[in-house]
Structures are given as C-alpha cells and as structure tokens.
Amino acid sequence: MDFNLPNNKIILTKKPEAIFVNGLRKIKPFYDVRKCTLKGRFFNKTLLQILTDEFRIKNQEEHSEDIRNGKYKIYTHLKKAELEEMLSINPNYSNELSKYEDIVKYPFKQNDYYTVSQHKHEPYSLQWSEDEKTDFSKNLICGMDILENNDEYIVIDKPGGLIVHPSASYYENSLTNILFHDTNQKFYSTYRLDKVTSGVLALGKTSAGAKKFHENILNKNCFKYYLAKVRGKFPGKPMGIVKFEELCKNKNVKGSDVEDFPMETEVVEISPIYQIDTKILFPKAFSEPKTAESRFQLISYNKKCNESLVLCRPITGRQHQLRIHLMRLGYPIPGDFFYDPENTFYPKKIDFIAKNNDYRENYPNIDDLKPLFDIFRKEFQELVESDPEESIEYCSECGAQEYSDPPIEEMRIFLHSFRYRIVEPDENKNDLCFQTKLPTWATEFKN
C-alpha cells in the first residue's frame, strides 16, 4: 500500500486529447485524481461538512451522493511508530478510507488529505495553430513563436483566448499545462497576462528564472508596452505608423521610457482599479481600490472605421488596468465584452466602475453598496440563465452540463503585449528586451 502519494496536485492523469472544432481548442473529457491538502479551518470537520460549506454549487445531498459513488477517498496521516503498530496488528492495514460510512463520520486531523476522482470537462480555448508543432530550430513551441529561450526562462508570443495558468474550470486547457505535456518541463509564473490578451509572456523554467522577472517588476526596473485598438479618435497628435515601425527597431539598444517610444502628446490616466466579483458574497465581492497609472499615445486614426491604434504603457500592473482606464477615458476597446459599454455583458456593473473611480468616496460605508451589489448579482445570474433549456446538453457518462461553443469574438480582444524591456544596470550590457511581431489588426492602420 502506498501511504504517501506525491505532493503534486495531480496524482494520476494522462496527456489529454485536444480536438479542434470551429476555431476552438477543446479537451476531450477525461478522468483524473487530485490530491487535496487541508487548511487549518478544516480540522475536526468531516469531508461532507467541508464540501457542503466550501462548494455551494451543490447541496449536501448531492455531495453525499458523490461520496457514495466513490468520487472521494481519505488518507489518514500516521507517524512511523503508529503505522508500524497498526501493521503489526493487521498486516493488511490501509490508511485509505473509501467506504461511505467511514468517510462521512471521520473528522480530519492535521496532515490528512483526501483525493477526488472526477470526469473532467473544461471550457474551450481559442485555436491558434493547425498542429501545435514544436521546432526549437524554428523558434516554435506548440505552434507559438519563441522570443527567447534559455535554461532559466522562456519568452513566447502568447495567443489570445488562452488562459496562462490553471484557474477555475481550466486545467489541461491552460498554457502551462499544454507546454508541460509537450516538453515535460514545469513552468513558473512571472507576471499576469489576461486570457483574452495576446503578446509577450515570460515563464520561468526555474524558480530563480521566475524570480528575475518578479524582482524587476517590484523594483520598477522594467518597461511594458501594449498596443490597443480603441473606438473613436483618441486625443493627441498621431505618432504615425512609419515612425512607430522605425522605433520598433531599437529594441536591442539601451532603453528607457523616453527613448523606447517617445510619447510626445501622451494622455495620462491615474485612477484606482478594483473588481466586483458577483460570483462571491458581499462585501468581499468588492476588492480594495488600488492606485493605478497608465500612459497612452495615439499612433494612427482610421477615420472610416472611427478607430484608433494606441500605444499603451502601464506604470502599475493592476488587473484589467488598461481596459478599465481606456473605458474611463471614453475610448473603450471595441468588442471587449467586459468593458466596452456597447458590448458588455454587465452594463450596470460596468457603468458603476466607469463613474466611480474609487467607490469609497461616494460610499464610505460599505454596507450602502449592498443594494447595488444585489442588482449586479441579478444581472450576472440572468446572463447565466439566459441559455434556453433546449440548447443545454449533458454528458452521457457523468451527467455534467456540457460547455457550449462561445462566439470566437468573445475569446480575444484588441489588446496586445508588444514589448517588454528589463533595464540592465550595467552600462556595458544591453537590456533584456522582448518584442513580438505586430498583430494583424494593428497592420491594418495606415500612416
């Protein structure tokens, strides 16, 4: 009997089968077993109590049925002497609890853990490649362009519509796991890049490699530049495509925020960033507003489409910062289903964020926001329930609701991480600078 399963989260899983349909990358449903360690507040509670309290998407009866059907197992922790004693009494002793009656009455103790076996269904990603080919001689990994690759880290041009790390319902259909199955290499987080955003992304191959990026971000020793397509004629004198493309060639020299891309008529937006998560309870749904600064420079304006190509430099790195700041300036990214007022799924919530840079100023008492939160939550629930019942399909194997195909345009936005520079303090060394090709939608603008 194996009394000590590996510490990694996944205990047993095979490389999932990817299917490409209608421009989407789908993972064929699969079974896996995950090891779940316990938080302190779980001690002296039964598994059924924990599941009922923590995973409210199901009620107690449904969780109980999952336990009865063998979805969960508990592994009790024994010290070496205790284990030897138990084995001396019963050579067939196992620290595994798998029977329903044993599981539901066992109170967890420190260092116990449980496993969950499930038929996994994952949301879809956007297909970015025909074959996801890896050819390091051609600077390709899983069909993505490699910008830099060494023993400490890899820098790639991430496609839009692909989540970076396992999160929520995504696991195997995440970038790091896709790369892991292809290279057998674990990758470490360096900084955040939203699922819908494309462009420069660095991943550490070692913790030291990831730390290099973390430290430079904390020390404000890096410059990040994004390209965005926005609705309307953005203020300022256009830099011009020709000048912009000329400046793109300076990536291998010593740089600064002035020398990289001079923003002669920049627009500066300084306003706090916060999130309202209607999937969790009030008041935790309102995150703390944090100071944020973004700078923007008009590159080109397309009068026919009434759209502008804008160079963006985030000074801080808050979640959805550029998207929110552009919205507050009145020049949203068209088609952004979160922050484009003409296309948002959440018009009431987004109108609140647009008009309240810092909700604490107008609502010093957080409890005064409860009626508004109820409105935002109802807005979210109505969206979830908007699919007609006849369009919902269920898995014949496990009964779970199947994911429906999302519209392609909802999987990506016109926001691209274009250049990332780490300033080298040694004057005799070039900076570390990573730059992608221009996204197709940016090349459509003329001088």
Automatic annotation (TrEMBL):
Pfam family, one: PseudoU_synth_2
Residues of the Pseudouridine synthase RsuA/RluA-like domain: 153-326
Gene3D superfamilies: Pseudouridine synthase (3.30.2350.10)
Listed InterPro entries: PsdUridine_synth_cat_dom_sf (IPR020103), PsdUridine_synth_RsuA/RluA (IPR006145), RluA_PseudoU_synthase (IPR050188)
Single annotated GO MF: RNA binding
One of the protein's GO biological processes: enzyme-directed rRNA pseudouridine synthesis
Protein name, entry field: Pseudouridine synthase
Organism of derivation: Hanseniaspora valbyensis NRRL Y-1626
